[in-house]
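Handout for the seminar on molecular recognition.
Each group receives one record of this type.
Step one: identify the two inputs.
Step two: read the structure output and locate the region that could contact magnesium ion.
Step three: write two sentences on what you found, then compare them with the reference statements printed after the record.
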Amino acid sequence: MLKVEQLTKTYQSGSRPLTVLNRVSFDIDPGTTCAIVGPSGSGKTTLLGLCAGLDQATSGEVYLKGHALQQLDEERLAVIRNRHIGFIFQSFQLIPTLTALENVMVPVELRGVAYDDVAGEAERLLGEVGLAGRMHHYPAQLSGGEQQRVGIARAFIHKPDILFADEPTGNLDSETGEQIEDILFDLNAKEGTTLVIVTHDPDLAARCDRVIRLKGGEIASDTGASQYGTSTGETLESSTKSTVTS
Ligand code: ADP
Ligand code: MG
């Protein structure tokens, strides 16, 4: 599903380069759930953005369903993102002037699908995340947990194969956070969506099939690393796939 090969990201900070991701490699199987953990500043958000095609690496490659993301121009990348990738932000990132329903429809409307076709599915998803009674509320009229539910419905509207979530429960109280987690894992179970979740929450990480720990821009540990050791940066073909267990 996702294959990250020797991924490096270096920022030019002042006169000297700052490497925030250093030759990171791993592979994620379809339908699995993976947590990315690590101290603040270890490169988690940077890694997620690169995997989702939101950012350009300094070197290395990200293969998403076989597409080499680094090779694509912005237009083709947008198509891949819109077809295969969902993204959930810690800060929700809803459009304030649109209702919950309209926010959920945005990714599909960008594709030019007719309103009526999309609206039904958006309503269904909002119902599924427990917002049947809030479809016509604006973000400012919703609680944080409710806004994140809208964010989840929006991320699922185009049935992504893989969903990236950057600390999706980070701005929520623990009870609300747990409900959000349940929704995510439920959608993983029902729709088979691969989940990659950055989190500081050990309980959330423990619910995932696999935990990759970053430290200083490198993989410090990986519970799903194969016996051949993808985390050392060696590239493998299919051998990781068959040896990952949970
Ligand atoms: P995490 O999500 O694990 O907290 P980030 O991926 O956000 O870490 O950031 C990793 C490091 O990269 C941090 O030290 C941060 O300061 C640095 N960084 C992130 N974005 C930029 C940028 N645009 N320019 C320079 N440095 C950046
Ligand atoms: Mg971060």
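Reference statements: The mean pLDDT is 88. The pocket of magnesium ion (ligand 2) is lined by residues 44-45 (CB under 6 Å).
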